[in-house]
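Action item from last week, closing it out:
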Amino acid sequence: MKYDLIISGGSLTGLSLARALSDLSLNIAVIEARPLAESVPIPGESRAIALSYGSKLFLQEIGVWPDLKTHCCPIETILASEKGSFGHTRLQANQEGLPALGYVIPFADLHNILLQSIQDLNRLTVLSPAKCSNISVDHDHIAINFIRSGEEKKQSISARLLVGADGLHSTLRKSFDIQANESDYRQTAIIADIQTEIPHRNRAYERFSRQGPMALLPLQNGCSALVYIVPDHAARSILELNDQDFLQQVQERFGYRLGRCKWVSARRSFPLSQVHSRSITAERSVLLGNAAHTLHPVAGQGFNLGLRDVATLSGLIHLAVEQGQDIGNPDLLDRYRQLRRNDQCLTGQFTDGLVRLFDLDTIPIRGLRNLAMHAISHCAPLRHLMTRQTTGLAPLSRMKQVLSQEP
């Protein structure tokens, strides 16, 4: 079976790309290893996604924001501080003329709405559950073999372009023997929803300490999504605490800005590392999202960076289709690589630098951190620069400007 485009991976990044290309007359296949309808976490399972304001604009552009916004809580203020230090940073949407700095949405709602947005597309085929095997490239197409769950016979499909949106352990990246730089932070993220005595008032909190960072993100239901970073060696004992003792640990790390922590949901955990693919393209292939770059969650940039991958690639594909070009041609892939290089590198370096900066505990470094946090809050140009970058508006604006000048 021949397609124009094959997307390997049916999670958030892959579904977003399929939706972004839905206005084109392209035959698209999405291959997902799990039953796609069952990829959504069960109700009550804690996992939230922080969408930057730039991501909101792109999701609005591809037509899914009206359905998403009823599930989102706006972030109107971000407060960052370090335990035991006077310095803090406050970013406010109204100071930047924005309705919000970002939005927080449960993963399940985001996944469901993206999935629903593509289910009725006539030119889209979902192959799920199915696992990809070997890949072969010819001058005008790329072929991929896959096996459906419960079957033994391999099937083959081909397309002009293959997109690897299959996550951290990307099959496509391994198939092309693309190496990746990986840093193990020796940290574990514990995630849960918590309820506090004082309402969050649409504020997001980032709290740094010697043990690791902690974030509380506002949810629409009045609770906050907790991201609690701990050293690997301490993770198991913390996960085994009863709810009361766990909340006491959170209270000691976070303080009483929101009063007492009253309730916590079931907890989940995952190890933290940074992975940066040394190449994001191969012949008639491209890597998106976590397949190309996996970040520490400290700055909430992971999915937002992947969505900018989607925005760039879909923009280039739209231009190629308008001009009657092959969407898998080397020039398009070279252009994609050039357009994404700086954003991916800068965002990765910023996130990694933030983790390592707060991991250092010498007195001079603590003093510099406090001065920097204080300066961001009180220096309007610096605050504006930080806000433009963290909301994704700066890189998104640069990308759109460049695409508008493409021949």
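Closing note: The chain has two domains: 5-181+280-404, 185-270.
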